[in-house]
User: Fold this.
Amino acid sequence: GENVEQHPSTLSVQEGDSAVIKCTYSDSASNYFPWYKQELGKRPQLIIDIRSNVGEKKDQRIAVTLNKTAKHFSLHITETQPEDSAVYFCAASIQGAQKLVFGQGTRLTINP
Amino acid sequence: SAVISQKPSRDICQRGTSLTIQCQVDSQVTMMFWYRQQPGQSLTLIATANQGSEATYESGFVIDKFPISRPNLTFSTLTVSNMSPEDSSIYLCSATGGYGYTFGSGTRLTVV
Assistant:
């Protein structure tokens, strides 16, 4: 089955700097890679996702890149703000057909 | 994307008892899932709730402990049976209609 590894487990950056979180997956059949943001006591919220037919996707300050050959994908947050502080999870699945498998999570702290 | 209503939001239960958690989706979805999230941890899949048939359980989770029902395309229940303090956790349901996975608000369970 699918296995998703996420690094780093914690990340602290200065406000305005960029943050990068990386994930690798094991199942080459996976074709859908979402990223979730979870604030304390809240449900995971989808912030961006990418399908395997695309190498990069951007939404304002957030971007995701995918390398299918190496089976890894990354989340990039630019111009970080204090409200970006949260736990971020990557995940992988075969879209619409299978369960979503999560990485271990990254606790991102933005220092003012 | 679908909106999921999950209840109860929290409960404190005596060991040895059972609790049933309900999730109602506002539209028909193809797949529903149940996750457990220990404090400070990632989301671990308990099972896939199959409409009209037995759920598909992940390794380490069994039907006798976590019976699941999904009588139609928009509703599912998870029962945590014969609870012990180790079952204290957050339980979340998730659903997908073919694109994107959304989550219920979670049930915070404390077993005393």
Notes: Chain B touches chain A through 22 residues (CB under 8 Å). The two ends of chain B are 37 Å apart (CA to CA). The mean pLDDT of chain B is 94. The CA atoms of residues 11 and 20 of chain B lie 10 Å apart.
